[in-house]
Give the backbone structure.
Amino acid sequence: MKYLICFILLVVSNNTGTAQQLKSGFNRDEYIALMKLSAQFGDSAYAASIPIPPGYSLLYRSPVVGLLNCWELWMREDGVAIISIRGTTSDKVSWLANFYAAMVPAKGTIQISKTDSFPYELADNPRAAVHIGWLVSTAFLSKTILQKIDSLHKTGTKEMIIMGHSQGGAIAYLLTAYLLHLQKQHLLSGDIRFKTYCSAAPKPGNLYFAYDYEAATRGGWAFNVVNSADWVPETPVSIQTLDDYNSINPFIHIKSFIRKQKWPGRWALSYAYGRMNTPSRKAARNYRKYLGSFVSKSIKKQLGGYQPPEYYKSMDYVRTGVFIVLQPDDEYYKLFPQDGKNIFINHMHAPYIYLTEKLPAE
């Protein structure tokens, strides 16, 4: 009887130690705690104004790499690891990652330095494309992130949250897709469960990337929390052309249809079609030129040996994933004045935390 009781206690102890802590679905208090961790990337005064929540320990802070990118590894008291990715800093190099906004295919290889290349796969759809600046940032961060994930897994940690605010949220999108595809390729253990909280994140890629990402994270395992008064999630500029549609669409035979019309209807339709189609194509080309080829010159100066890839011929950025929308009220606007003096007034951690605290508790 004594041995039976010991055996039962051992089994219960083991089951308790391996019980799943991460739950699917948006959790208000979980997100607020993550935002408080994210705020620690700020200067001393900023971080002090949003103190670290109880039950979290900082295990690692990465070196600053790439386009001034950095991340931290936190451990929650229940054994869940937190990968917290820094957003844009005030340095112009950090902003280069945002302005380098041409698209590239969501599968390929980029040469990020003289000695390192980054093979990546973020989506199954061959038409999926993503923001090149944030992909470069992901490439540099992924090296130490994968090292830490491997070390954690070897010691039994199999539940991890990926968190990023602002630019950090954009990178969190791409990092999540990258890690999930490594699991599909059996290059990363499949028993690791990832949950992602993007916060105030801009648009990371095109519609086909969004489809893939949303399918891969379905079931309540990824969110983007957005303050509806915040302009950052509205970026980058999006330009849709007829080439961005699925290959079977109402426009594929439009030119032959126009040619079959009688004069002067044929001329009128052709003129109207050109006036609607040409400007968007020209605008998309100009954005790729200036936010791709032109900005890449500064990227090459910053990253020795970097080789710009061939850009995807689209600028059709879309909002991606499941959104948790925070709606400001009159009380919010009194607390956060909308006088235009601070363009980031609705984007910082404090307004996001304030609005989230107004949501119903779990």
Notes: The chain has one domain: 26-357. Residues 165 and 199 are 4 Å apart (CA to CA).
